[in-house]
Structure formats: C-alpha cells, structure tokens
C-alpha cells in the first residue's frame, strides 16, 4: 500500500515536471520573441528565463502543498494554523528565489564557456522550459513532505548559489580583501540573497518550533514560542543586513550584522536547552563549534593571520554545520505526523 502511494506520488511529480516544462517553454518563447539574444549581459535571456522559472517553481510548490497537506491545519487552533500558513507562504517565495538565483548562476557559467552564443526565441524558450522543469520538479517534491532538514539544506544551497552569483557579477573583483559586505555595494544579488536567507532562517525556526512541539507538547509551549521568536528575530536581522548596504548605511549595517550573530547564538543556545535528553551529538557539536569560533577570532584579531572575509566564511560555515547537526538530531527524535495543539491561544491554556 505504501509502495503504491509512493509510485502515485512519483507519477504526479513527473506530470508536474512536464507541465512546468510546457508552461516555461511557452512563456519563454512569448517573452523572448524577436532577435536572437546572448545568454547574459544587456538584453540577454538570463533574467527573463530566471523570473519565469522562479514564478513557475513557486507555483509548483504552492500547488503541491495544497494537494498534499491541505487538511493538515484543519484540526489546529487558529494561531497554529496561521503560523503554518505563514511558513508555507514564506517557502513559496523562497523556492521562487532559489530558482531565480540558480538559473542566473547557471547562465553565467554557461556564458563563460559558450562565448558568443546567441539564442532565438525558440532556443531561449526551450532553455527556459528546462529551467522551469528542474525548479518545478524540486519545488513540487518539497511540497509533499517538507522536513526541517530539507529546509536547512535549502538554506545552505541558496546561500552558496546566491554568494557565488554575487562573486561572479561583483563590480569590484578585489572585494575579498575587505569583507563579504563589499559584495552588496551597487549589487542587488548579494543583498537579495541575504534578504531571502533571512526569510528562510525565520521559517527554519518555525519548523524547529513545530518539531519541538511534536516532541514536548503543549506544556512547554511558551518556551517553544521563545525559540521560534528568537529564530524569527535572527532572520529579520539578517534581512536587515541586506536591506541596509554597507556603502550607504555603514553604521546600521554593522549593527544589523552584529545583531544577527548575537541573536543566532542566543537562538542556538535556547534551542539546545529545549531539546529533550540533551543528545550527545548536539552537545559535542555545539561545544566544538563554540571553541572553533573562539580560535578563529583569536587568530584574526590579535594575530591578523587572515582577513575579515575569511573569518566571516568560517563563522557562516560553522553556523551551518551546527544547524545541520540540529536538524538531523530532530529528524531522529521527532515523531511522524502533525500534532494539533489543544491550546486555543498561546497566552492561555484551555480549561475543562
């Protein structure tokens, strides 16, 4: 029975991929009608193709979510259903943004190896259809059963893709001599990446709260709400780093960056304290990451062995390593299935 359900799900995914390809190809041909265009640069096919593929991927995720998880919020109280729906909306935007950045990065890579290539409306439309099919397939599959670990992987992949695209298109090729914030100078790519990454971190926090609720239930709902709010604040702070570029608002930018680090550390510590049983893998990783951060900062500030860019890369890498351990531990501990709350409100319990 379970095998048949999985086969039906795979069949739906195949059909979704085909539909995304057809829609992407048709829209691509319609938008790119006229003279042949290069892959990248002014008047290229990269941006129109990326936007079309991103919109289709977002639609595929939303369609899949409505198909497979529509009834999940029905037994939930209103506040819990609102949180779930807001998370789904944020993920719809995130999947579209991931697809856009992925297409733009791929176009830049292809253009470097296929210099001088120009595509007509038919060729550009087919390329748009392929991009829409890949993004749509991934997004549709995520809508079936999205786990916290999948979100963490999505966050990691998006940060890598967005940062690489920002590096390739950076106005100053020697940005790395200062810090990553230089990528945001006169460039929407890096700032946009931080904005969507902030949205993803807040959504990951919502899913962490969901997992903790499935583990611990309503008695510790206030503590779980604190965890979710701290992760949401971390996401807002990271988005503010992108919204307040260094070259325009240096002081607010630095305040937002420092706030992101402090809030991330606070959210991580609060989350570890909330996981029942204090799993050894999570504790060892948390202590190890903290020690490595101290070592990295000591080697940077007093000794100056490397630039601020290297320190930022180490901090982000260690943070993602810690998050990967957290979501894997939760995946082992958390039971399957939704757990509707018996609390009509976060502020008060239901009395018999």
Tell me what you see in this structure.
The chain is mainly alpha-helical. The chain is built from ten helices and two strands; from the N terminus they run H-E-H-H-E-H-H-H-H-H-H-H. Strands 1-2 form a two-stranded antiparallel sheet. Helix 7 runs antiparallel to helix 8 (250-274). It is globular, with a radius of gyration of 22 Å. The mean pLDDT is 87.
| Rg result | 22 Å
Structural class, by secondary structure, is: mainly alpha
Query: Largest sheet, described in full?
Result: 2 strands, antiparallel
Number of strands: 2
Poorly predicted ranges (pLDDT <50, ≥5 residues)?
Answer: none
Bin the helical content. Answer: over 70%
* Count of helix runs: 10
Distance, first to last CA: 40 Å
Topology:
Blueprint: H1 2-31, E1 37-38, H2 46-69, H3 78-113, E2 118-119, H4 121-144, H5 148-168, H6 188-216, H7 221-243, H8 250-274, H9 280-300, H10 308-333
Helix pairs in contact: 1-2, 1-4, 2-3, 2-4, 3-4, 3-5, 3-6, 5-6, 5-10, 6-7, 6-10, 7-8, 9-10
Keywords:
globular, 74% helix, 352 residues, two-stranded antiparallel ribbon, single chain, mainly alpha
Summarize the structure.
The chain is mainly α. The chain is built from 10 helices and 2 strands.
């Amino acid at each position: 029975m379970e095998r048949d359900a999985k086969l039906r799900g795979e069949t739906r995914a195949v059909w979704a991929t085909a539909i995304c390809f057809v829609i992407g190809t048709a829209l691509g041909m319609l938008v790119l009608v006229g003279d042949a265009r290069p892959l990248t640069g002014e008047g290229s096919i990269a941006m129109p193709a990326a936007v079309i593929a991103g919109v289709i991927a977002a639609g595929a995720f939303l369609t899949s979510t409505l198909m497979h998880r529509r009834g999940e919020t029905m037994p939930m109280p209103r506040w819990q259903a609102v949180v779930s729906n807001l998370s789904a909306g944020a993920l719809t935007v995130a999947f579209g943004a991931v697809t856009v950045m992925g297409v733009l990065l791929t176009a830049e890579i292809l253009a470097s190896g296929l210099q001088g290539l120009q595509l007509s409306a038919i060729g550009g439309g087919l390329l748009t259809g392929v991009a829409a099919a890949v993004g749509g397939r991934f997004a549709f599959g995520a809508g079936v059963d999205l786990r916290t670990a999948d979100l963490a992987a999505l966050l990691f992949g998006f940060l890598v893709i967005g940062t690489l695209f920002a590096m390739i298109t950076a106005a100053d090729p020697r940005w790395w001599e200062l810090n990553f914030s230089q990528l945001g100078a006169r460039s929407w790519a890096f700032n946009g990446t931080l904005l969507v990454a902030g949205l993803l971190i807040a959504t990951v926090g919502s899913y962490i709260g969901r997992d903790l609720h499935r583990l611990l239930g309503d008695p510790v709902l206030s503590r779980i709400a604190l965890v979710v709010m701290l992760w949401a604040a971390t996401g807002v702070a990271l988005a503010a780093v992108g919204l307040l570029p260094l070259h325009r608002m240096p002081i607010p930018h630095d305040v937002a960056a420092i706030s992101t680090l402090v809030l991330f550390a606070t959210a991580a510590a609060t989350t570890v304290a909330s996981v029942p049983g204090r799993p050894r893998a999570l504790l060892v990783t948390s202590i190890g990451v903290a020690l490595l951060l101290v070592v990295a900062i000591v080697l940077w500030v007093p000794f100056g062995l490397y630039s601020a860019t290297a320190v930022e890369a180490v901090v982000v890498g260690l943070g993602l390593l810690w998050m990967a351990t957290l979501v894997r531990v939760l995946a082992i501990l958390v039971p399957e299935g939704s757990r509707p709350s018996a609390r009509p409100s976060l502020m008060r319990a239901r009395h018999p």
